[in-house]
Amino acid sequence: MKTSSRNDIYSGRTMFRAGFIHVIRTATTERRVAQHGGDGVAQRARRDHSPHIGSIGTGWATGWLVAVAAGLAGLVCFACSGSKSPPPIEGGVAPRQCSGSALCVGATIHMCQGDMIGDEIEDCAPSGQVCSLARCTSPDCQMAEANASSVVGCLFYTLEAETVGEDQANPTSFLVSNPGGDAATVEIQRPSVGADGTTQWMGGTSTPVPSGQSGRLVLPGGAEVTGIGTRIGGAVRISSDRPVTVVEIEGDDVAQNATSTGGTMILPLQSLGISYLSVTYPEMATPAIANIPGSRGGAARVMVIGTQQGTTIHFLPFGAVSAAPGDGFGGLAAGEDYPVVLNDGDVFQIYSGADGEDLTGSLVTAGQPIAVFSGNISTTYGSQVTGINSPDMAHEQMPPIATWSQTYVAASLTPQSNIDCTSFFGTSGASIWRVLAATNGTSVTFEGPGVDTLQLLPAGGVAAPLEQPLALDAGQAASLIGVGSFTVAGTYPILVTQGMDCEPSLSLAIAVDAGTLVKSLPFAVLPNFDQLLGIVRPQSTEVDLDGSAIPDGAFQSVGEMFEVAEVPLGACPPNQGVCPHVLTGAAGFGMTLRGMDVQSSYALTAPGLRCDPGNEVCLN
Predict the structure, then answer these.
(1) Residue 558 pLDDT exceeds 90
(2) pTM summary value
(3) What is the pLDDT of residues 579-598, one digit of tens each?
(4) How far apart are alpha carbons 394 and 375 in whole angstroms?
(5) Would you give the DSSP letter of residue 268?
(6) How distant, in Å, are the alpha carbons of 275, 278, 547 from that of 582?
(7) Does the N-terminal peptide bond of residue 469 adopt cis geometry, omega within 30 degrees of 0?
(8) How is 451-472 classified by DSSP, letter by letter?
(9) CA dist., res. 466 & res. 88, Å (int)
């Protein structure tokens, strides 16, 4: 067994890159569109890789932004809560702007013809339903979908990510929790693409979920999105007739044979955005990775899902990518704009292509809401330490930049205590943290008991004690290793992620800006994992788990305002299939969760979102 050393990790790899872009927000009276430009803007070379995409011009930070703003005008002005209803439509094309394939006008669904509201498609009223997000649904769903800062919703876009060869037969499970007073009917939907390119979502496996309970849906085979480029109709959609939360577990270990597992809490459609930065780990084909068929050398990846017809996305890597993204082009230079058109349910996927390549800080933008996932098909974080540890999938849904916070609590998720695992980092129970900036000149500070243990992995890979403040420009990410929990604060919005020791993972830290903490959260877990919660609360407030207060003695301070507790969950019996839980707290709380087995693990966080319909790009 090799002795562990922090300096083994990312040795010789460049962790910082200079001169990305400056992401700013420009507010108008009815919308805020994420813009890119300003201080230290890197000059972007642009190639039109798709012949069916019209010319946008070389000045993408100006010309492309104007096109996005124009395309969003109808979506934002007429779909956001508080906006005025459009005038009555007597037929033909109304002189109002429209975005996407269809939209709601009162209780009726109307098609979009160009940017104008066209003919009526369906009237929801005769069936006792209402119109929300361009389809007929229940009043409960309409109410939930008016909240663009929530993980509770009725439509969820996701995918089955590619996994290593040994685990491709293991199922992907969706754990659906129902917080409402009525039973929900929830189904997995797959897109059917017509000859004209239009998408119809077809229902498949479904399950009833009683009030206050949870259910498990297993994705049928054949949905895995493999390779690089665009997969037509590659997405999966979870649809419910009542508001629910959805957790996705890839390689769910129900048969106790999983070697690679990933998890994430899926954002509902109304909480998606148009501008994202990704987080991954550098690709490194360590011996443990190289011995796993289908591991792609530990490649990093970014996956983008279209939710509207004719959505042009732009992918701009922060560093060079040697893997060919498609259309006959080999690799992308740092900051090069790669445009792709996605229809509803299409998926674009790109992998890194060589040791050291890292897709962290890659910018993904679109003129319509999209879902973005990122991580690694398999990783050891670059560590070559072996023992009771193993490579694993890293997978997380990225929150839109517009919802990032300036302050996070980094709630440490420690490994399973009864297996005496071998640390990847040289210190038992450590985590790897990544801090990503969206704005040039971001200054980051750290506070709390875990700060004294933090080691920075700068360019060159030689670990050194953290010196504060940490300076980052847009798209730059810092990597730190340490034991324990702490608070992270930026002078501008940042994103913070965690990777667990022994069994790699990727999960968000807990956002604690005003408006990000939740007061009630239903969730579920599966059998066969050792489950641990990380709970964040404002100091001296009560948080209840399944109706019982978490003891005050379980919490420790991580600064002047917040406290953290590690709370083990009892074993979920295999014959139960799925085990529901609920957290509540009148003053609000944040939650992160890990499940660990000897060979596989996952971690996920209930993302804290802030999206003001008056001045952010939201669906509602």
Answers:
(1) yes
(2) 0.85
(3) 999 999 999 999 999 998 87
(4) 5
(5) B
(6) 31, 30, 8
(7) yes
(8) GGG-EE--TTS--EE--SSEEE
(9) 62
